[in-house]
Fold F-box domain-containing protein.
Amino acid sequence: MDAFDAIPNHVVIDILNKVADVKTLIRCRSVSKRFNSLAAQSDSLLLQLDQFLGAAEPEPEVNSPVASFFRSIFKSILPIFSRSAKPAETPKSPAQILAGFNRIRNLDVELYGGDANLEKGAAVKWKAEFGETLKSSVIVAFRSATVNASATESPVNAVETDSEFVCGLKTRVVWTINALMAASTRHHLMGDFVKEHKEMERLTVRDRDEEGTVVMSAAGMKEYREAEARVDEKGLGVERVRDRTEVPNVRMSMRHAPMLKLKSGICLEAATLVVVRPSGVSSDDNDAELATEAFAADCMYGEAVAALLKRRRNVLEMNSF
């Protein structure tokens, strides 16, 4: 017997969980019958959608005369093979790509880019938690960032006038709406997958640029499946099909600083912190905890959150959309 065959199955599965990358694991499944069986039992996966949906950056073409000649020959004979060969069907959704994996508990999905269309220099970073619909979202945004250690720091405890808050309010609301729409689109993208994998404990969907993150806990996914089951029982499934999840009526706690200097010397222009929850949910006591936890792993954004939490809170209501 081959020495590798003597390795217990649970050890092989543990190794495959360390690999995590879905595309690599799909290749592993073609190695042998044993690998095909064990790779399907991996419970911690990383799905990079650009590898499957063709959004990765194309490799640059070589423009030498020889390369151009062979490229022209290939293009001329390609139609002949295209008519005789049946094209392979490309998976269109995470549920289709992950259909062969039956014990997923933790899944990280990486998208190929951010969603917000911002003016040059501006940045928005957000984190949203979902169940059936939006549970909470924390958004940090600023118009520009400069390094200026000698700049005079704006006092974070200074009282902001109403006119200062209103100035640029439209831009801050647009930032918030963009973030919520991006989050609801990602939540909808994973709907079929969540319904099929009932042993899931954690789902995270983020983009490669680290602009935004959607998370769903085991309780949130259970809530989503139960809501979908109720809809299916009433025969309304087709009517619910759309490109994103509907955002409910929400209450926004918004804090803003026209100029915010961080301890690192970075100055943020029009720095904004928004904590979003569905209307009717008490949020006064948990804003600081929720916002701090959302950006605890990011030094700059975490520092910005800590400073903005000391600013005056303005509460706004937004209808469902």
Remarks:
- Residues 55-60, 151-157, 237-241 have pLDDT under 50 and may be disordered.
- Residues 123-318 form one domain.
- The radius of gyration is 24 Å.
